[in-house]
Design goal:
The chain is an alpha+beta fold and about 250 residues long. The protein is built from eight helices and nine strands.
Length: about 250
């Protein structure tokens, strides 16, 4: 992993390899605008950052170290942020009660809860959690995950955007690690168009989440194919990604 103390040297040494882990990500803001990032010269990176103790999610997550907090989306609203968040824990109600009762949270609305997860919409005084992404002209890439006071987030950017982001991140003085760094070429033919489409839909529908948010039957209905065809195409695509980013680099 690469720490903040190594400053921007990692920006200048981007290669076609990866550091500690590889994670397939296809749902980005540019993809929503019709740009196919698989065919562009892009950098994909994932970071882990230690959060300041004065941020509410840092405080609450440290109180419940076994819980996972996922910021699903967030937008500025005056001096605060309007957010949609998910909690995954053994007792999600206990955790969400702590969230609801925090001084930095207002207008909390519980949208869903069961014995493992809860989803709520709320206003929070925590724009600093991801405002540095806006400062670097990169929109936040959701979900953003927080566990025990540490935040993990990903971004997909051009070389220039990545350098600007690195500068903005270093200027914050925050402690962070670079977990994953993948540089793709325009000539990248890792996946077929069919595999790319199926994996993108599966990712957006939550098929790869734990637990799954979409069944194979539901996914095949969306794709308009039978279950065996959907399953085979997804498995072949995942196998190519694993071979490219893990097996071939051992």
């Amino acid at each position: 992993m690469i720490s903040r103390r190594q400053e921007n040297r990692w920006i200048l040494t981007v290669s076609s390899g990866i550091t500690d882990e590889a994670r397939f990500r296809s749902e980005t803001s540019n993809a929503k605008s019709g740009i196919d990032l698989w065919e562009m010269n892009m950098i994909r990176a994932r970071f882990r950052m230690v959060l300041s103790e004065d941020i509410w999610v840092s405080e609450v997550s440290r109180s419940f170290p076994g819980a996972t907090f996922r910021l699903l989306t967030g937008v500025p609203k005056g001096s605060r942020a309007l957010e949609l968040g998910e909690v995954r824990a053994e007792n999600p109600k206990q955790v969400t009660d702590a969230v609801r009762g925090h001084a930095d949270i207002s207008a909390y609305d519980q949208l869903y809860i069961d014995d493992q997860r809860a989803i709520g919409q709320y206003e929070a005084d925590e724009k600093s959690l991801y405002e540095f992404l806006w400062d670097s002209s990169l929109p936040p890439e959701f979900p953003i995950t927080v566990e025990d006071g540490e935040m993990e987030f990903a971004l997909t950017a051009t070389q220039d955007q990545f350098e600007a982001f690195g500068t903005a991140l270093d200027d914050t003085g925050r402690q962070y690690d670079l977990l994953t760094l993948v540089h793709t070429d325009e000539q990248d033919t890792l996946l077929t168009d069919r595999q790319r489409k199926y994996l993108t839909v599966a990712h957006r529908r939550g098929y790869f989440e734990v637990p799954r948010e979409c069944t194979l039957a539901e996914l095949s209905d969306v794709l308009g194919v039978d279950k065996s065809s959907a399953s085979e195409t997804i498995r072949r695509g995942v196998d190519r990604i694993i071979t490219q980013f893990i097996v071939s680099r051992d």
